[in-house]
Design goal:
The chain folds into 2 domains: about 500 residues, Amidase signature (AS) enzymes (Alpha-Beta Complex); about 100 residues, Immunoglobulin-like, CATH 2.60.40. Helices cover about 30% and strands about 20% of the residues. It contains 17 helices and 21 strands. The longest helix has 24 residues.
Length: about 625
């Protein structure tokens, strides 16, 4: 049912013709709201704009596979909010703004699968608390995003949707378990989105999509209506392309909920608006403690660690005092402190027992009926013990309390505003690899302290890097202030190459160029959505040694990327997958066709590969 609704909505969009002239690509909530206020665009047109991008890039182009289902009432709800606006009824900064939510948030307008085929037909009788708050604030819930099955991992693969892709490198995972939200917001499928975090599930996708993401203090946000993984560690929260958008989403969703007793702890700790904490010189006078032991020591960790170190140096230049600190006994404190194994089976069963129309009633039933993805079987079975180890559970709770007190002491004794370390120590996994290495998620998940993933740059392969800031209880405003100060100076946001702005409502088509040198010619076709460069080469030079594609400058050749025609042949053809540096060099005119012959073994001719400027995007 969910796929037919999605297809019908996208078919309606295609039938109605190209999207309106207003371009939603990379637009912030404040920019969208200004355009709505001026009459430049309507909420109806915003929905159409995002649907056009989903149509172009979710199951076409890079095939991100980040959307599970779309809201069949989205356009009607947009019309109603446009009517309210016309009648001078404004609900706030999210009025008429399309957002997305992870598919473990219960929704009245859409099914809720939690990423498993076992719940593919489950329809909730009520919206989750966060969804209710978003609707009350005027947001349009455009659709539901893919997730790692039952939130049980960090790569986003499930029995209902398969693998989700990273728009910065579609051969890699977007992280997880909120990978669909991360991929979607990175690709401008909506203004912002909601995820949930049990151990890194908001922060890792934020880091891997060049986003800002917040896991709040335990008790800041209601868990009501979110399919559970661990009642102790679970929390919902937003992912956004800017700190301001993140603050707007927090304002709309946090607060005490009578259906979730732990949110009572948030009373008196939530500011009137998180946006009030956003000041341009937010780093000036701040004290940040670097936890060096969380940077990773493997060779592959050094690339991301270097980007984080550069960001910390820049923060210091912007007025922050950056010092190195040690958390006493950290490794021992975190070891065996996770409670997912002790809670998941029972929390999920309790959740399903309260929903009579749920197709299954337990994790065991899901596994016995073969309703989970093959890659998840072993992990899910390990989290379905015959009985709970009460002693191990008790020890984990003790460790959690001890970790909280130790970290609070480090913050207080060093007069720190935040601790800092990489959100993830290395590149995202290749599609199909479900290993969980390189995550630093457990410190916040164990302590219950707030942690924010801050976009700080890109690794050598072009994948985004995140720095994590962890603060004292209910210090979300402080973390936002620090991140905003960084953002206003560094401007770290860079859109992914695979999901560019639409052209007349459609994805840019591949572009072609024919390049010649004396004795050879090549027809190149570049598809920027997949980063592929197809070539068909022909050589007439009788003494050819090689026809190459090389880097270089106008006055100086550089290294060889590919040999297009080998010695003894007259033609060649293939498709090259361009990496980040290759795409940048192509866009900048730094790729050259070079001919080598026996008579001129050091070069017989050289011509730059030039693509149409408007479409030669990175």
């Amino acid at each position: 049912m969910r796929h037919s609704i999605k297809a019908a909505l996208l078919a309606t969009l295609a039938f109605s013709g190209p999207a309106q002239a207003y371009d939603v690509f990379e637009k912030s909530i404040t920019e969208l709201q200004a355009a709505l206020a001026s009459g430049e665009v309507t909420s109806h047109q915003l929905v159409e704009g995002y649907l056009a991008r989903i149509q172009a890039y979710d199951h076409a182009g890079p095939k991100l596979n980040a959307i599970v289902t779309l809201n069949p009432k989205a356009l009607a709800q947009a019309d109603a909010l446009d009517k309210e606006r016309a009648g001078k009824k404004m609900r706030g900064p999210l009025h008429g703004i399309p957002v997305l939510v992870k598919d473990n948030y219960e929704t009245l307008d859409m099914l809720t699968s939690a990423g498993t085929l076992a719940l593919a037909t489950y329809q909730s009788a009520a919206d989750s608390y966060a969804v209710k708050r978003l609707k009350a604030a005027g947001a349009i819930i455009l659709g539901k995003t893919t997730m790692h099955e039952l939130a049980a991992g960090v790569t986003t693969v499930s029995s209902i949707t398969g693998f989700t892709r990273n728009p910065y490198d579609p051969t890699r995972s977007p992280g997880g378990s909120s990978g669909g939200t991360g991929s979607s917001i990175g690709a401008s499928f909506a203004a912002a989105g909601m995820g949930s975090d049990t151990c890194g599930s908001i922060r890792i996708p934020s880091a891997y999509q060049n986003l800002m993401g917040m896991r709040g203090t335990r008790g800041l946000s209601s868990r009501d209506g979110i399919v559970p993984l661990s009642s102790t560690q679970d929390i919902g929260g937003p992912l956004a392309r800017s700190v301001t958008d993140l603050a707007i989403m927090l304002d709309a969703t946090v607060g005490a909920d009578p259906n979730d007793p732990i949110t009572a702890d948030s009373k008196g700790h939530i500011p009137k608006s998180y946006r009030d904490s956003l000041i341009a010189d937010g780093l000036k006078g701040a004290r940040i403690g670097v936890v060096r032991s969380m940077f990773g020591t493997a060779g592959e960790d050094k690339e991301y660690g270097a980007v984080v170190n550069d960001a910390l140096k820049t923060m210091k230049d912007q007025g922050a005092e950056v010092i190195e600190v040690t958390i006493p006994g950290l490794d021992d404190l975190l070891k065996d402190s996770a409670v997912i194994l002790h809670e998941f089976r029972w929390d999920l069963a309790d959740f399903l027992a309260k929903r009579p129309n749920a197709p299954v009633k337990s994790l065991g039933e899901i596994l016995d009926k073969g309703l989970a993805h093959d890659q998840l079987q072993e992990r899910l079975r390990s989290r379905n013990p015959e009985k709970r180890d009460d002693e191990a559970y008790r020890k984990a709770i003790v460790k959690r309390k001890a970790t909280l007190e130790v970290v609070k002491a480090v913050l207080e004794e060093n007069k720190l505003d935040a601790l800092a370390y990489p959100t993830a120590q290395r590149k995202p996994n290749l599609i199909g690899d479900d290993a969980n290495g390189g995550s630093t998620c457990q410190l916040s998940a164990t302590s219950g302290l707030p942690a924010m993933a801050v976009a700080v740059g890109f690794g050598p392969g072009g994948t985004p890097v995140g720095l994590e800031l962890l603060g004292a209880p209910f210090a979300e405003a402080t973390l936002l202030k620090l991140a905003y100060g960084w953002e206003q100076h560094a401007h770290p946001r860079k859109a992914p190459f695979s999901t560019p702005a639409l052209v007349n409502g459609r994805a840019p088509a591949p572009v072609a160029a024919e390049v010649s040198v004396p004795g050879a010619s090549v027809k190149f076709t570049y598809d920027q959505l997949n980063g592929t460069l197809r070539y068909e080469a022909a050589a007439t030079a009788k003494d050819l040694v090689a026809l190459t594609l090389q880097r270089g400058a106008a006055d100086k050749p550089g290294p060889i990327l590919a040999n297009l025609v080998l010695e003894g042949r007259a033609a060649g053809g293939d498709t090259l997958l361009l990496q980040s540096k290759d795409r940048e060099d192509l866009a900048a005119g730094r790729l050259f066709l070079q001919l080598y012959t026996r008579a001129a073994p050091l070069g017989a001719g050289r011509t730059a590969l030039q693509l149409p400027v408007a479409l030669a995007q990175k």
